[in-house]
Amino acid sequence: MAAAFLVADSDRLSLGMEVQHKPSKEYLEDLSHGNLDGFPDFLTERSSDIVDLLLDHNRISIIPKLIGNFTNLVLLDVSFNSLRYISSEIVRLEHLQMLHARNNLLDDDSLPKDMGLMKSLQVINLSGNAFSEFPMQLTEMTALKCLQLGANNIVHIPPEIANLKRLEVLYLGGNKLTELPEEVGCLSNLVSLYLCDNQLLSLPRSMVGLQHLRSLSLHNNHISTLPPEIVKLNLVELSLRNNPLVVRFVQDMVLDPPSLLELAGRVIKVKNIKYEPNSLPSNLIDYLDSAQHCVNPKCKGVFFTSRVEHVKFVDFCGKYRLPLLEYLCSSRCKTSPLIYGSSESESEEELPVVSKMRKVLLG
Ligand SMILES: [Zn+2]
């Protein structure tokens, strides 16, 4: 097969990612939209000749053992069927690069346990199925460039996702995620990350490690603020609509008064009172050393555990104003007119918040 570096059939393309495979008519078997309820017998006669096998839009419920005879398969499309089970013989397909099985009935028991042995797979699409757990086998497929698991019921992403170092596209939209592991920040080749339509409350700070990320989709989540590190990314696309962002954050703000320990510690740091390791218990030394500076450049204050969360808007790529979470030493400490703290929630102060929000939400 000529190794023409062309883009595959646009319908099977994965979110704009280029796949180095050109379907050739000679080796293509297109049985899509065929009303089939299984693999037809005539296929088995020439199974080892077929490179691209299209069985999408049928009524097939299992991928049978004979799939193991299709030893030269590069692309298999079984999307839009009634698949509940994939036979473990699929692991024998050493050349398979693309597996499309979206919109089926696959669940946590449907994939072969040793599917992680399929080291040639670069694209796998399992969107629109019934997974409630992230299939751990996928974390062993180290050649994966594009992984789509949208529209399932997944609640948790395992830290082992960090194994997928070559991943460029990760689609997790339409699941039930409330958080992401810090290890997402290890996916250093990621270009597009889709997290829309989940229940995410925040993002890990490690995302600053995604230096190739260009598109980040976060709409329809429960995110109230973003980690300040996000401004270091070179995003060209960012969707934030339908997140509570600043509005809910400001309303929910509660200030706990600082403890006596905190107040005493602040005086020691601000007045620069000297202390020696042998003059104080080690836990107090550690405590004093954990002091953080107030982000207000006009304030010399420090804080320990009692801090005031506030939101700072930052220009981002010249297109957005992002609400970032930072900390001040007290509720009376303000940095600039762009800061919207708890004490300024008068009605005339809320107007500028709303106008900034529109830029973020709709930008
Ligand atoms: Zn301060």
Automatic annotation (TrEMBL):
One GO location term (cellular component): cytoplasm
Matching InterPro entries: Leu-rich_rpt, Leu-rich_rpt_typical-subtyp, LRR_dom_sf, LRR_domain-containing
Transmembrane segments: none
Alphabetically ordered keywords of this record: Leucine-rich repeat, Repeat
Keyword Repeat carried by entry: yes
Matches recorded under SMART domains: LRR_TYP (SM00369)
Gene3D superfamilies: Ribonuclease Inhibitor
UniProt xrefs under SUPFAM superfamilies: L domain-like
Entry superkingdom: Eukaryota
One family name in Pfam for this protein: LRR_8
Protein name as catalogued: Leucine-rich repeat-containing protein 58
Species whose genome carries this gene: Paralvinella palmiformis
